[in-house]
Write a structure and sequence with these properties.
The complex is a heterodimer.
Chain A lengths: L7 E7 L3 H21 L6 E7 L5 H10 L10 E6 L6 H11 L4 E5 L3 E3 L1 H13 L3 E10 L12 E2 L3 E6 L2 E6 L1 H4 L5 E4 L2 E5 L7 E5 H7 L12 H11 L3 E12 L6 H4 L2 H19 L3 H21 L2 H11 L2 H8 L11
Parallel strand pairs in A: 1-2, 1-4, 2-3, 6-13
Antiparallel strand pairs in A: 4-12, 5-13, 6-7, 6-12, 8-9, 10-11, 11-13
Helix pairs in contact in A: 1-2, 1-4, 9-11, 9-12, 10-11
Chain B lengths: L1 E5 L15 H10 L3 E9 L7 E6 L8 E8 L5 H15 L3 E4 L8 H8 L4 E5 L24 H13 L13 H12 L2 H5 L2 H25 L4 E4 L2 H11 L4 E2 L22 E6 L7 H13 L7 E7 L3 H13 L3 E5 L5 H6 L3 E4 L9 H8 L4 E4 L2 H4 L7 E4 L4 H10 L5 H16 L9 H17 L11 H15 L2 H18 L6 H10 L3 H10 L12 E4 L2 E2 L14 H10 L24
Parallel strand pairs in B: 1-2, 1-5, 2-4, 3-15, 5-6, 6-7, 7-8, 9-10, 9-12, 10-11, 12-13, 13-14
Antiparallel strand pairs in B: 3-4, 15-16
Helix pairs in contact in B: 1-16, 2-3, 4-5, 4-7, 9-14
Classes of the chains: A alpha/beta, B alpha/beta.
């Protein structure tokens, strides 16, 4: 590690699932202990477990998990903050971020495993380059159950935001997947610029993260809050990078949209959030007019063909126009909306 | 609560509603505070299987009826119609499905509601659960009992093999077919054994009839509550189908009798036949009886007026000629009939049906209005008639019918007694039993719907963490909106967005640009511009008043156009031509959507 600071808070939102925390928390403690051993002068690290169960499930599960820690790991500072009720991922992260003391925030899902090398690499990059807003590791997923034994974890593709027929779509970045993205050396680490940072594992500066608004609760209960944060950062000219030397294994133990909601409800949520995202980031009147033309066409065709699902997605977004306008007011370079 | 009312016979333009109870019931349900979305069929005047939704305002109700009709040309399969119904359910999100006359849809339609776990109610107004031959008659008009599969199978084969037999029943024109028809319908086992090819066809038909009944029985067993429109029908269907049917008698709205015309005792009476020329209803028997009476010296005949709902033009014309030759006042209309006028000037109703009648509207209307009835003594009629206010004759017995007519030829004695009894019954039993009103029936259905809805918890309401539950609640709230309301919300939101972004371009311009971008919407506009009838709108752009059509509104420039024939009819009905866009906010017919192009 080259001159990094360990003035770090790891924010770990969780609904208190002992299986998930029991796998990720001990590994995280070991990583922080190892990190501190490498650079004792670099500052302290802490873990803020955000208990978002609404019923204190994580707080109840922690003693048993902590009892399994080795002698070194028990030295790691672990604090628990509880949300008064289940808020969802974005608001839970924000609760932890406001409670954190570290200058840097490492946001991790509670089923993501990172080692000391990975965390150090992220810190190196952020420390070396002030124009970078967020540094994310390369996300890996365990090999599929039907893969040959000892198959290596699979890389989770980077994502890009596209405008297709006036609808925002988040797609796999084919250039990055093909290894064609240009690699930069930052702080001694190899990194590539990305459009979208993953919410599963990302390192940011706490002050800037909070100043930017963090994960917007407009998109609750799930999906696209990381894309919104990425777009907000990029509007300010800030860079987002994936650090190729840092890896995080996302165990993917079932907290995705598919697990939270049945398929039709999940589709409605995605449709709603895609519209809210689009409206929040519309910059010019020309774009707004073009967008409304497209939306009129979509609505009329849905009305004429009986496509209720499309109309429901739009109506759900319309119901949040007021919150969207408030959220939009926090952006720079866009005209405020009066609703 | 939103209710889907399903009936293949929704006569929105018929005030008499002799062939469909659904129209009156739908309005009564709306008056009871329910949101009613009717699903029905209509003859193709546009692309086959396309759906069109209209708004039908109801006097005394806050919300208009939504009437979705599917364009059919007779070539549709049951699965196509079921899929159309599934699309309707997905669009309108009813809380309860109420099935009425569904023979034309087929049994699969019931499965669509069950697949979506919707509470279901079925009310039999005919013997469809047991038979496809709803009149329970053979091609030669011979009746058969409910449950007689053998008779139905023979009837099926006879219809296939004797194409010259009239559709409404009767003997074939072709003499060779007459012999064959008799053998097929009434031949015994020995007769048929001599014709093994006929025996085989009947056997195959019997298997089909039994398989169809088993399928209906299977899907009906998944319906939450089963009712029948008469006690007799409920009893017989329960026994035949093996599933319990509860009697729920249809409501009826009495009409005012004899408006303004003073009765003169002893003058010649005026009897009324109100129905159709279908042989089963026995108008030909009535004319035979009248002719017999007129031909018998010393016997006097009452005056007779015939009011028909047009069915078969050739048959209607033939009966009109016969009637006029006998001095009968004859009226046959394709459009709305005025029940009040028809019944109002009559001393008694004559309904000499041969068979196959289940709570016929004309008989119930007459009794509820205090009018005596001369009718055939068949089970589906007797239940609705009181002995003191009616005369029953043997079905098909012209001599007895002539005798009954003669006994009521003058406004004296017997007729006055019957009238007094009918009037007394109409007053004493008004609103109850067989004479209950449509609103009373609607209240009974409302109670049934509420019981069913209360027995089912909202799906998934308590699943997941709190923030997910909150989203589910938002989604459920959107899901409860009718399709029109949903579109209205989107439309309103688009207007809000336009204002919020400070756009000076008006909505009409934005919509025009939307069309210009191409795709199905633009194609529809182009088609309409060339007079093509393809791809008509699903969300209604039409408006009806109870009892008559008024011009359907059309949003200029959107290409949401009516078929040329319909538009012409509408213009003839109301030359004033009210223009209105019912997309989204059609529930308020006095105001459009605010989106005027």
């Amino acid at each position: 590690m080259t001159g990094s600071s360990l003035n770090l808070t790891v924010v770990l939102p969780t609904r208190g699932d002992q299986k998930r925390l029991g796998r990720s928390l001990p590994r995280l403690c070991e990583a922080l202990v190892a990190l501190r051993a490498r650079a004792p002068e670099a500052g302290e690290a802490e873990i803020v477990v955000v208990d978002d169960s609404g019923v204190g499930a994580a707080a109840a599960a922690l003693p048993e998990i902590l009892a399994t820690l080795d002698r070194g790991s028990v030295e790691v500072s672990i604090r628990t903050v509880c949300t008064e009720r289940s808020l969802g991922f974005g608001p839970a992260v924000m609760r932890g971020a406001r409670d954190a003391v570290g200058a840097h925030l490492l946001v991790l899902h509670d089923d993501v495993l990172m080692d000391a090398d990975g965390i150090a690499a992220l810190l190196d990059v952020l420390h070396a380059e002030p124009t970078i807003f967020a540094a994310a590791p390369t996300l890996l997923r365990p090999a599929a159950p039907d893969s040959p034994p000892d198959s290596p974890p699979a890389r989770v593709p980077a994502r890009v935001v596209l405008l297709e027929d006036d609808w925002l779509r988040v797609r796999e970045d084919s250039e990055a997947s093909a290894g064609a993205a240009s690699v930069n050396s930052i702080g001694g680490q190899r990194a590539v610029d990305v459009e979208v940072i993953p919410s599963a594992a990302v390192l940011v500066r706490r002050g800037e993260f909070l100043d930017l608004g963090g994960f917007d609760r407009l998109f609750g209960p799930a999906t696209l809050e990381d894309v919104d944060l990425s777009m907000c950062a990029r509007r300010r000219g800030r860079r987002l990078v994936e650090v190729l030397g840092a890896e995080a294994l996302h165990l993917d133990l079932g907290d995705g949209l598919g697990e939270l909601l049945e398929a039709p409800a999940a589709r409605a949520l995605v449709a709603r959030n895609r519209l809210l995202l689009r409206w929040k980031h519309l910059s010019t009147r020309t774009d707004a007019a073009d967008h409304l033309v497209g939306l009129w066409r979509t609505a009329l065709e849905a009305g004429l063909t009986g496509d209720r699902e499309t109309l429901e997605g739009i109506a759900l977004a319309m119901d949040r126009l007021g919150e969207m306008a408030e959220s939009r007011a926090t952006l720079r370079g866009v005209a405020p909306m009066e609703l | 609560m939103r209710v889907a009312l399903v009936s293949h016979e929704l006569r929105s333009d018929a005030t008499l509603r002799l062939r469909s109870h659904a129209r009156g019931l739908a309005s009564a349900l709306a008056r009871a505070g329910l949101e009613v979305e009717v699903f029905t069929l209509e003859a193709c005047t546009r692309r086959r299987l396309t759906q069109r939704r209209r708004q039908v305002p109801v006097k005394g109700a806050d919300k208009a009826l939504g009437v979705t009709s599917v364009a059919v040309d007779g070539s549709e399969t049951a699965s196509e119609l079921a899929a159309a119904f599934g699309a309707f359910l997905d669009r309108e999100h009813p809380a309860v499905c109420h099935f009425e006359s569904i023979a034309a849809f087929g049994p699969s339609i019931l499965g669509e509601a069950r697949e979506r776990e919707l509470p279901t109610v079925y009310c039999a107004r005919d013997p469809w659960p047991a038979h496809d031959q709803l009149t329970l008659t053979l091609p030669d008009l011979a009746p058969f009992e409910l449950g007689d599969c053998e008779a139905e199978a023979r009837g099926v084969v006879a219809r296939e093999m004797c194409p010259s037999a009239p559709g409404g029943g009767g003997g074939p024109v072709n003499p060779g077919e007459r012999v064959l028809l008799r053998l097929l319908l009434h031949g015994d086992a020995a007769d048929l054994a001599a014709r093994p090819e006929l025996e085989a066809r009947i056997s195959a038909a019997r298997e089909r009839v039994q398989a169809d009944r088993a399928h209906k029985r299977s899907v009906l067993s998944t319906v939450d509550r089963r009712f029948a429109a008469s006690r007799m029908l409920a009893r017989q269907l329960s026994a035949t189908v093996g599933r319990a049917f509860t009697p729920r008698l249809p409501g009826v709205e009495p009409v005012a009798l004899r408006p303004g015309e003073p009765e003169v005792e002893g003058t010649r009476s005026s009897l009324l036949f109100m129905g159709s020329s279908c042989p089963l209803e026995g108008l030909d028997l009535l004319l035979d009886a009248l002719r017999e009476l007129l031909a018998t010296p010393g016997r006097e005949a009452p005056g007779l007026r015939v009011v028909l709902e047009a069915t078969d033009p050739a048959r209607d014309s033939a009966l009109a000629l016969r009637a006029e030759a006998l001095g009968v006042e004859f009226e046959c209309r394709r459009s709305a009939l005025d029940a009040s006028r028809a019944l109002g000037g009559a001393d008694a109703l004559v309904f000499p049906a041969r068979w196959g009648q289940f709570a016929p509207a004309s008989v119930r209307l007459a009794q509820a209005s205090g009018l005596p009835v001369i009718a055939a003594s068949i089970p589906g009629l007797e239940e609705f008639l009181s002995p003191a206010s009616s005369i029953l004759v043997e079905p098909g017995d012209v001599g007895q019918l002539a005798g009954a007519l003669a006994s009521l030829a003058h406004r004296t004695g017997h007729l006055e007694e019957l009238r007094a009894a009918a009037s007394q019954r109409a007053v004493a039993q008004a609103g109850g039993g067989a004479l209950k009103g449509l609103d009373a029936e609607a209240r009974e259905w409302l109670q049934t719907y509420e019981e069913l809805a209360a027995s089912r918890p909202a799906p998934g309401a308590d699943d997941g963490p709190r923030h997910v539950q909150e989203f589910r609640a938002e989604l459920a709230e959107v899901g409860r909106a009718s399709f029109g309301e949903l579109f209205g919300r989107v439309e309103l939101g688009l207007e809000q967005l336009r204002g919020a972004f400070g756009l000076t371009e008006d909505t009409a311009s934005l919509m025009a640009r939307a069309i210009a971008r191409g795709g199905p919407l633009a194609d529809r506009v182009a088609d309409a511009g060339e007079g093509a009838l393809e791809g008509l709108p699903l969300v209604g752009d039409s408006l009806e008043e109870e009892g008559r059509l008024v011009p359907r509104p059309r949003p200029c420039g959107l290409g949401i156009a009516e078929p040329a024939e319909d538009a012409a009819e509408d213009a003839a009905e109301d030359p004033a031509g009210r223009e209105q866009l019912a997309l989204g906010r059609g529930a308020d017919p006095a105001h459009g959507t605010g989106v005027q192009a």
